[in-house]
What does this fold into?
Amino acid sequence: MLHNELAKKHTYYNNMFFGRWARLYDYEKYLLFPIRRKAAKFFRLKQPAKVIDVATGTGAQAYELAQLGLDVTGVDLSPEMLEQAKKKLHKSLKLRFLHADGTKLPFRDNEFDGASISLGLHDMPYEIGLAVLSEIKRVVKRNGSILVVDYMEPKKHVVAWLFHPLIKLYETPNYDLFIKKGLERYLHQVDLKINRFTHVLGIVQIALVVNAK
It folds into this structure.
């Protein structure tokens, strides 16, 4: 019952907030392009690996992964975001976008070689974030790679500490809870552990997780 109520709130928030700002969000590609590119290369998956990009938004991370020759499916709960994402489709890329709930992915167990979630967890209520990570774990093969990109906790880097008050001004209400709990706690709750780690300017962390099931 609690999960259903949270899911309803999350759906409403996606439709009302992200739906409203979908076109504006697509301009973030100019600011975040280096991060998306670095994260895609950090993944180290080789074509023709099959990847799901959860909470794909306007498809920026999915596009960078597809640029490397990967077979990518981006999923998101916001139709407006997906409308912008589909502008990135090209016949030269193995890239598609699907309207789907990250807490109930419409795919079989072990269907993908890898998965990514980029700058999405901090926008979700804690329980929803855990449900999404559990679903990602389910659809990714054993020993498959999971790429997680999100804000760095202030305790990890002085630059993150300096930028934290500024980020709070424009981010969603769930951001502060994500920062307080920390990425490792999210992963630990679903039996996942960081295998490789890097960051961009001390502000954004890029974590690679091996799905040991």
